Amino acid sequence: MEITSFLPPDIIRMIVSAVVIISFVFLNAMVMTYAERKLAGHFQRRPGPMEVGSHGLLQVIVDGLKLIGKQLILPKDVDRPLFRLAPLLAFIPVVLPFIVIPFSEKLQVADLNIGLIFILAISSLNGMAVLIAGWSSNNKYSLFGALRSVAQNIAYEIPILLVVLTVALMANTFSLKGLVEAQSGMWFILLQPVAFIIYFIAGLAETNRAPFDLSEAESELTAGFHTEYSGMGFSLFFLGEYANMFVVCSIATILFLGGWHGIPLPFLEYTGVFWFLLKVYALLFVMIWCRWTYPRVRFDQLMNLAWKYLIPFSLVNFIITAIVLVIVKL
Amino acid sequence: MKSETNTQQNQSFTLNMGPQHPSTHGVLQVILEMDGEYVLDPQPVLGYIHRMHEKMGESRPCRKFLPNTGRMDYVCALPFNHGYVGLIERAAGIEVPPRAEYIRVITSELNRVASHLLWLGAFLLDLGAFTPIMYSFDDREQILDILEEITGSRLTYCYFRPGGVYQDISDKFIEGTRAFIKRMRSRFSIYEKLVATNIIFIKRAEGVGVISPDMARRYGVTGPLLRGSGISYDIRKQEPYSVYSDFDFDVPVGENGDSLDRYKVRVQEMEQSLRIIEQALDKLPEGPYLGKAPKKIKLPPGDSSFSVEAARGELAYYLVGDGSEIPYRLKIRVPSYSNLSVLPELGRGILLADLVTIMGSFDLVIPEIDR
Hints:
The structure holds 2 protein chains of 2 kinds. Chain A is mostly helical. Chain A has one domain. In chain A, helix 4 packs parallel to helix 12 and helix 10 runs antiparallel to helix 14. The two termini of chain A are about 40 Å apart. In chain A, about 45% of the residues are buried. Chain B has one domain: Orthogonal Bundle (Cytochrome-c3 Hydrogenase, chain B). In chain B, strands 1-2-3-4-10 form a 5-stranded antiparallel β-sheet. Chain B contains 15 helices and 10 strands. The N terminus of chain B is likely disordered. By secondary structure, chain B is α+β, with helices and mostly antiparallel strands. In chain B, strand 7 and strand 8 form a beta hairpin. The interface between A and B is medium-sized, with 30 and 31 residues.
């Protein structure tokens, strides 16, 4: 970060970055909760939250206070250490990717040369947390949700990896900054529309969002893997979900939508951040839109979609891209 | 994990679905023998909301049992009213003026549309779509407002009386109903776009829970489930009660007997109900709304029965009188009970998600089953 760059010790920089990232994650969760409830309301022809604050703006804060004040219920016969550990494990892997996300040309904590791989590696830990939560809860519905989630994550990580590799092949780098810089001329969505669609569908599945929210399918599994969680245990999963959505959408923005690139605005000094956040929140809006429009798919249909359609298509796409790149370079 | 059993060759386990579960819509409990995601044997457990309605009917004069009828099926209470007053009228030989019969038909059909709308939302909610229920409740709210105007209640109606109805319909009611018909007709295309053409919905409902005509006959399945299986059986056509023979309407039937057909049948039934209401409003005769009926109705010795088409299927009341005011025996045949009895056979070897779809497509109302 530019502000911290003149501070000599790396420790201070680390602490400031951590505080900024955590605050952003919480802020994002608040914005997203409000946006989701308000948008859901308008999709359903009702006003949404209106009571607390003007147009329900303070509803999120009140809800947060309520969740903090709630008793943490420990059901009978749970595996205590794992039950307590799971929400934290769900939260940490979605915060870490923020380290490498370039919000603008300069606003980035660390530009790892393997940034993309780092994010994908960290994100897969999320499945672990869900499995632990489901297993330790001593509830069959939780276990169901956890097993579904793990199978889903494994299936959908493959198309994501293949798509990401395709783009990395074009940009010739794994650094997120490098990927954005490679799109200064033309966004990759124009060159790789199929890859973008595959990534977005797989991203919906990866974040357990409707229509792929099978691990917490309300009508089948009551609340899936977090059935037994209350208070802050539940809120950490909740925060994790929104942070994860943000990460998935920001990767989509970085890989396909040209990251911080956009028309320079006269009234803003750092237009990169504005364009980046605009693109990310536009994608998040589409995610919310999908959730409140579609019914949930069935588990076998979900698996079929991944193994029969997304993986072959992304593989073919990858091979074609590679061949074309070789021909162009010749 | 506890309570694992070794009943099958591969390990199966028991999963308790309900009595408190989002998709059992009430206090139905289904004990599932599961093998992973597959249901091996679903067994419904009834009786959590048993209130002895039939026994209550045998212990008080028939007028005092009227409020009970609306509490059995709270979603579609007026046909339950209708069945009981129809039974009393048949047993005691009470004449009903034509205007009362027309009002009964109009209100019953409005109630049927309201019931189907609630089902539509709840079914889609079972499939994981949150938005249709808000749309359908918006429409249903209009009906509740219209019916509240004349019946005085919104859900557990007690509007029909032996010999007629409790009070006459107003001009406001007629206007409101006509406006609702117009509004509802324009809403069908919204449901078509939002639900019926949705690829995920079709994939979830098509071929799921196929009830063959033979199976439907074996279990005594009635209502939209039976018509979804392709059998055109509707009490309003088969043995027309009240003034249903005066109206021109179709009985929609399905082809495959799957959940998608049940959806289509119910949506078409709503359209037919609107047709009936419209015709009834046009033909509405003048005259008294309440005929002459003795205050204390004596039920002559002998048995009598009366069937109506409730929103979920054939509802039959059977009564044995002994010359006193209080029925000697009262038996109520409710549609959801026999509809639910198909579930153990349908639910073998299917996915848990499909079981939820099937139960949703049955349109179960638990207080009606348990009575």
